[in-house]
Amino acid sequence: MIKGNFIDNLPKVYGIYTGGFIGFIVLMAIGESMGMTAKAIGICFVGFTIFIYALIGWLSRTAQASNYYVAGRTVPTVFNGMATAADWMSGASFVAMAGGIYFKGYGYMALLVGWTGGYVLVATLLAPYLRKFGCYTVPDFVGTRYGGNTARLMAVIVLTVASFTYVTAQINATGTIAAVALDIPFQYAVYVGLVSILLCSMLGGMRGVTWTQVAQYIVLIIAYLLPVFWISNNIGAGFFPHFMLADEVARIGELEQQFGFVKNSAADLATVPKGLAGITKAHSEVNATPWAFISLALAMMMGTASLPHVMMRFFTTPSVKAARKSVGWSVFFIFLLYSSAPMLATLSKLALIDPNLPTGIIGKSIAEVQAIDWYQNWNQANLMFVSDFNGNGTVELNEFFMGGKAVVLATPEIAGLPYVISGLVAAGGLAAAMSTADGLILAIANAISHDVYYKMVDPKAETAKRLVVARVFLVIIGFAGATIAAMEIQGILGSVIWAFDFAMSGLFWPLVLGVWWKRANKEGAIAGMVLGLVSGFAYLVWVRSGGSGFLGITQLTFGIFGSTVSLVAMVVVSLMTSEPSAATQKMVDDSRIPAGTQVISQK
Amino acid sequence: MAKNAQHWEKTRGLLFVTLAIWAVFSMGIFLFGAEMNEVTGPFGYPLTYWFTCQGSLAIFVILIFWFAGRQEKIDEEFGFSEKGDD
């Protein structure tokens, strides 16, 4: 069936894979109708998908440095787009995004704009030039462009700080899903998740991660879109929700007017389980100041362009122009999910609050709601709660509380979809969390093995030894992440947003000016990275410990402060010190022309 | 070297145009978020709401492909394009 070169057969391979996965879903649906239990379906979905990823990871094993670090630079644009989208969309995007939109509305949607708009910066300012450079890692670019081990090491530190904040959240999400689907305690589930993650990346490095990420994208996008379309049809909202929910959005506005947003007393709120929230903000109205919206979007955009695990995906394309186009495909594949999240939030909210719909619970009596099956399930899972604050016996808008994850996890059940969909959603969330965790762990481990070990400690090391070291660090970083995740210190989304701010504080300007400003030199770059990271971190600590902040910069947007300090420091210090050597300037010139051999020759 | 300088000038020009469009749809329009939301946008959604759900996102996708195409033309014009197609 498959002849010739693997790359030429990609559409066929993944076509068969997609067909196989859909066949598996159908099989599970048949199983359900024949009496298969919910638990068995969950285990099958999680077990089957992890098995496939592990198989791909094993088939992609390699002993070549260029395969391990940049997948041999053979990944076609469309497939790199899918891999980047999976790399990008984390467990948080998958599970928590629709919930964020559901509760916070417009103010939260700055993240949708920021997390896509950032790719315009990636495509125009960085990706093609870094690809031409021919580096293996982002610190490799910094180290080569500016010269010297200090700059390289600083870049490794910024990368580690940003990526590590992010990766614990992903391992946490993997553990949460594995714990529910396999019915084991979270502390163990975290390590089950970790082992699955390492199975994808350890043998094949970037090559293994690339081909598993494509497979994971296919699972996660089916798992996200299928329920959205199905729910929309089931509650009669329209067969193509994206184009047809205007009436539903308007209806939610009407109901909000009718019910009003009643503010609960602190004493009443204290009785609500931790982590649950009520609907307190208008669904489609502008509820944030222009600066609050724009500053959050801007921080996320600059952060996107500075996150090394994303940037390194564009090192794997066959050419510079393929790198540019592949950024377009990446945002396209991300767009498919992001544009569906607000639709899911709309459907979920309407289904729950519209008294005209059979699923609506507002206006029903408390006892009646408490007797609904799905309410009991999700109440037990600590994701749903009603309480009769005013004692009138019926549920009011301000008396209904839900966890952010419930929008994605519970809506299928509420809208009457079969359990097989919940199993599918679990597999999708797992795919999203695993693919991001893989990319992040690989980014950190590669930076340490290539930039610190090979470039600084032992430049004469043989390829075989380098790849052993790379894998040892992969395992160490993974275990460190899992151990911290098992401690459950921080909520999923908070740490994700901080990662963007850390990355932009330390890396945005050193990367951008490295390409676009020939005069930028080593001293400037070091000053930019050190002062950017330190000042951003200091601002975060200050605001977290009760500081008032300034210019409306919050703990979610501290990167705006950090990166501004970084820019000023970098320009001032560069101008105060001597200009870069002729050789370095020639290197920058070469990186600006797509044709010809890449700037660094790698072994 | 003059050829390189000209190529870079055109590349930079394209960068500024692309970033200007990007700035308008990622930040500029949201200065007037409240006012714009009074207007009915595509498919009947409130206009600002539509931009945050679909509009701006779709524009970024198109913008990047447009940019990639233009940049390729510039590279070809100066003979700096890479061999092979994909």
SSE blueprint and pairings:
The complex is a heterodimer of chains A (603) and B (86).
Chain A (H helix, E strand, L loop, with lengths): L9 H24 L4 H22 L5 H6 L6 H12 L2 H14 L1 H28 L4 H9 L2 H34 L3 H16 L3 H30 L6 H4 L1 H14 L6 H4 L6 E2 L12 H15 L3 H4 L8 H19 L2 H13 L12 H5 L2 H8 L3 E3 L13 E4 L2 H9 L4 H39 L5 H25 L4 H25 L5 H23 L13 H19 L5 H10 L12
Chain B lengths: L1 H25 L6 H4 L10 H31 L9
Helix pairs in contact in B: 1-3
Supply the key terms.
heterodimer, A: 603 residues, mainly alpha, Sodium/glucose cotransporter, globular, B: 86 residues, 70% helix
Structural account:
The complex is a heterodimer of chains A (603) and B (86). Chain A has 603 residues and is mostly helical. Chain A is 71% helix and 1% strand. Chain A has 26 helices and three strands. Chain A has a three-stranded antiparallel sheet. Chain A is globular, with a radius of gyration of 25 Å. Chain B is mainly alpha-helical. In chain B, 35% of the residues are buried. The chains are: A mainly alpha (603), B mainly alpha (86). Chains A and B meet through helix 6, helix 11, helix 12, helix 14 and helix 16 of A and helix 1 and helix 3 of B.
| Structural class by secondary-structure content of chain B | mainly alpha
Kindly report how far apart the N and C termini of chain A lie: 35 Å
Biggest interface pair, counts: A-B, 56 and 47 residues
Based on Cα principal axes, name the global outline of chain B: elongated
Poorly predicted parts of chain A: none
What is the N-to-C order of secondary-structure elements of chain A (H for helix, E for strand)?
Answer: HHHHHHHHHHHHHEHHHHHHEEHHHHHHH
Write a brief structural summary.
With 603 residues, chain A is mainly α. In chain A, 71% of the residues lie in helices and 1% in strands.
